[in-house]
Amino acid sequence: MQSKENDINSFDVFLIGDTGNVHRHGPDPVLETLASHFRKEQDSAVIFLGDNIYPRGLPPIGNILRKDAENGLIAHKNALREYQGKVLFISGNHDWNKGRPDGYDYVIRQEKYLEELFLEKVMFPEKGCPGPTEININSKLTIILINTQWWLQPGFRPIGEDCGCGVETEEEFFKQLTTIIENNYGKRILIAGHAPVYSYAIHGGRYKLKHHLFPFTIYHKKAYVPLPLIGSLLPIYRKYFGAKEDIAHPRYRRLRKRLIDIFKSHPGLIYAAGHEHNLQHISKDGNHYLVSGAGSKLKYVLREGKNLKFGIKEKGFFKLRLEADGSINISTWVIDHHSKMGKMVYECALH
């Protein structure tokens, strides 16, 4: 308990995304590694950064994929069975039926199922709304959750009071996000959404020679079907025009541009995302961008880049430690079969 507003303990935030393919039966290595970091005496929160169920979110009862999807969410609950901190889920494109027009029904089913599973509200923003959702942790830290898939989703997207949402228009979302940030001036602000703002991996248009020669390896690592010359068309298209889940896609670009403009005016922000199946720390314009989507799948990421501080293709998560004086350190932890807590492969103080 806090006796005074400024008399706080340290606070940990665990950032892990794309856990939708965790082991359904028996312990999952990533979730077990994550759980080994929990301490009853340490205040903390876990944020699952979307794509909580592969391949297509939570289907209706009777669907062939329903039981497997339920088991995936139950695996999350089992891994957190003794956890006493705050649990937060946000949604990703797979949670919205892989971005299909009926995705709203899928994300609402998942929200209700998680609420029954955890016996409290854990999925935000609620009701499939765009957000933003403000969570005041203490006098030093505020977390803001946004629903990036809302911006990319075809079909029905809830907005306005009639749908239980706190904003009536897209423009009002950006105004409200800016207001929350400004109202928390002097605090550390962590914003979490599924889609990255920057990325040195495939969704960010970063490809290597293999993807030009064997373009189907973009989707499956063993799809070595040679298509020299013509094969370059797929990575070039995705880099400059984009599939709907790529940064280059027009709807994604529109959201990204507005977020960058807001973030630039408020240096010191931390933005955490999943979506890419790897771990990245990018620093730009005085802000920090973490990509932590290596919860159950892996894909290629660059190891070096102009603003890339760290990138690795390993299963794991980011751990953010807010000290009582307001300073923040991040560390990256990956599976290590010789250590229950895994192996720390990166550490950095954020300024």
Based on the model shown, name its key terms.
13 strands; 6-stranded mixed β-sheet; 8 helices; globular; single chain; alpha/beta; Purple Acid Phosphatase, chain A, domain 2; disordered N terminus
Structural class based on helices, strands and sheet pairing: alpha/beta
- Given as residue ranges, the uncertain stretches (5+ residues, pLDDT < 50) are 1-6, 210-214
CATH topology: Purple Acid Phosphatase, chain A, domain 2
For the secondary structure, the number of strands is 13
Give the CA-based shape: globular
What value does the average pLDDT take? 89
Q: How would you name the CATH homologous superfamily? A: Metallo-dependent phosphatases
Give me the number of helical elements.
8
Order of helices and strands: EHEHEHEEHHEHHHEEEEEEE
Bin the helical content.
10-25%
Terminus-to-terminus distance: 27 Å
Annotated CATH architecture? 4-Layer Sandwich
Per CATH, the class reads: Alpha Beta
The Cα radius of gyration reads 19 Å
Biggest sheet details? 7 strands, mixed
Number of domains: 1
Lateral arrangement of strands in the main beta sheet: 4-5-6-7-9-8-10
Strand content: 15-25%
